[in-house]
Fold this sequence. Notes:
Structural class: alpha/beta
Strand order of the largest sheet: 12-11-10-13-14-16-15
Number of helices: 11
Order of helices and strands: EHEEEEHEHEEHEHEHEHEHEHHEHEE
Radius of gyration: 19 Å
Number of strands: 16
Distance between the termini: 49 Å
Largest sheet: 7 strands, mixed
Helix content: 25-40%
Amino acid sequence: MKYKEIRVSIPKDFAEEFSAYLDEWQVAGYYEILFDREEPRKHGEEIISDNTPIRVYLAEDDVQSEAKIWIYLQTVAPENSFAESRWIETKEYEEAYKEFYKPFSVGVFWVVPTWEKEDWEKNKKSEQKDSVPVYINPGLAFGTGHHETTRLVLSRLGSIDLKGKKVADIGAGSGILSVAAAKLDASKIIAVDIDPNAVRSSTFNRDENEISPEVLVVEEGGFDHPQVSTETFDLCVANITFAVLKANMEKIAGLHTDHFLFSGVITERKEEFLELLSSQVGGKSLYETSWNGWELIEWARK
């Protein structure tokens, strides 16, 4: 199968909104590049550019989304955005991100690409032996674990007692957070995403981590998925952009849980998001932290 790869460089101020539109348009896949060798840098891996590099992948027949991307860039940042496109095979995409994706630690976890699983297990150092390994191949889904929002959630999950608990992961992407919850002995996880590529990716990663399908259930859907909207959970995790969270606030309020973990909200929207939670969901903030302009909010109704 062929994909249209669009390499986008967009000012950081518009990156969240652009990602929200990509979700809305249901493109085949997209991800942000953590370390882009085409971007200027200093001090090792520190990126100097004020732009966010994003790779967008469109299905072969998706002409409308490509036109929308070009129009959006020309509308919001005609002078300091950039985009170019090319046709690629699926295999090309998979090989491209392997260059950027290496094992790394976050909280109690070590996130390890599936293609390095055997080597990592065989050669892991003494300080890695007590860590919790999470083996991930993102495929055409958001969720390498590199993004600040995902790291924030992973860091906090290690501080929450999930043993025997039931978890909902909404907007699961690659399934990295669901796998992490399972590795912390959650009794059942319902992972949903509106993107079919994410569902395939989450299923693959579940199996790579040898997690039972009865423990980690992967389905296509969102906040209104029947299992998500009707079952009771000890924790609901949503690593989704502010725009999507805001649009689904009524559905969030209707979920049968009193414990939430939100990420994907930029600092500039934090207060607005907290006001929405307070007025529509009820409760209070249990824990807040931020990283590089992204917020993590743990919220409780009781």
